[in-house]
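Example 9 (inverse folding). The structure is encoded as follows.
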């Protein structure tokens, strides 16, 4: 038996059923669309994360550099003095 060898060249013809060709084109189009959508979503989320990181850094800097206004510091000092005076009065009442 002699084996027939088919050689491929410029004149070789291939027969693909139209249904299979449409399926391959549709699959390729859907795959490209899906890949593009996923890539776009990842890029969008990375951008959001970068913006959030920037906000966190700004908030941390604000917290580290925060000093209460003078009125608040005075009020805290006066409240502490009142607490001490109250304790002194309580001690005096217990000693009587």
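The amino acid assigned to each position is listed next.
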């Amino acid at each position: 038996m002699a084996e027939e060898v088919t050689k491929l060249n410029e004149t070789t013809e291939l027969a693909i059923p139209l249904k299979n060709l449409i399926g391959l084109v549709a699959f390729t189009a859907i795959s490209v669309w899906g890949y593009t959508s996923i890539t776009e979503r990842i890029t969008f989320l990375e951008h959001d994360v970068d913006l959030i990181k920037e906000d966190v850094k700004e908030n941390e800097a604000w917290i580290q550099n925060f000093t209460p206004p003078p009125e608040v510091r005075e009020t805290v000092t006066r409240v502490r003095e009142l607490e001490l005076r109250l304790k002194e009065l309580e001690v005096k009442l217990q000693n009587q």
